[in-house]
Amino acid sequence: MKKLFILTLFLSFSAFSQEKMGLSLKESTLFWKGNYAVGSNGHEGTLQFLSGMLTQSANGKITGGSFVIDMNSIKNTDEEDEKGRKNIEGHLKSNDFFDVKKFPTATFTIVKMEPTTLPNKYAVTGDLLMKGISNRIVFTALINQNKEAISVKADHTLIRTLWGITYKSQGAFDFGNLKNDLISNAVPIKMELLFRKK
Predict the structure, then answer these.
(1) Domain of 39: which CATH number?
(2) How many separate domains does the chain show?
(3) What is the pLDDT of residues 30-54, one digit of tens each?
(4) Secondary structure of the chain in the HEC alphabet?
């Protein structure tokens, strides 16, 4: 009975000592870039978040977190012509790519965070659920924090076919005879995030 009481007290203290830092939606952005398989031309743009938070222990160690990405917010930023820009955004929202009517959000859940040998750099492991498919990804993030805020900067390259996005994708036998309209499977993304104490 005494051991059960001590365990309950420990778990209660652990839960109480976890502090939540909320994602500042206006100050956080996800940047994306899509390239053709041949040449350097492509398109780039942004995505916005619907919500997000990090949890940290009493000593400031980040223990977890989760994010919800608004797939309807996808924007193209390189096309100057408004009609062309809207066509690009509409195509990305269609079932050729992200099928936002069926899958309006994507989520990322942190599984593990470990410090690297470089100052303020961490190896982040998490699960990205997009278009109903979950894949585990690992990337390095630069994290700076104080008592009031946490800033995160990270880069990663997603392989879009892992989430069933195969429109004009490079097949295993396309490299010897690449077509000009093939789109690279690799999609570089960059995240700039700011969290504030709730």
Answers:
(1) 2.40.128.110
(2) 1
(3) 999 999 887 667 899 999 999 999 9
(4) CHHHHHHHHHHHHHHHHCEEEEECHHHCEEEEEEEECCCCCEEEEEEEEEEEEEEECCCCCEEEEEEEEEEEEEEECCCCCHHHHHHHHHHHHCCCCCCCCCCCEEEEEEEEEEECCCCCEEEEEEEEEECCEEEEEEEEEEEEECCCEEEEEEEEEEEHHHHCCCCCCCCCCCCCCCCCCCECCEEEEEEEEEEEEC
Q: Does 7 map to a domain?
A: no
Q: Residue with structure tokens 């398989």? A: 37
Q: List the domain range (segments joined by +) for residue 163.
A: 22-197
> Is residue 15 a part of any domain in this protein?
no
The answer to whether residue 5 is domain-embedded is no
Q: For the whole prediction, is pTM greater than 0.90?
A: no
Tokens in use for 168? 């004009």
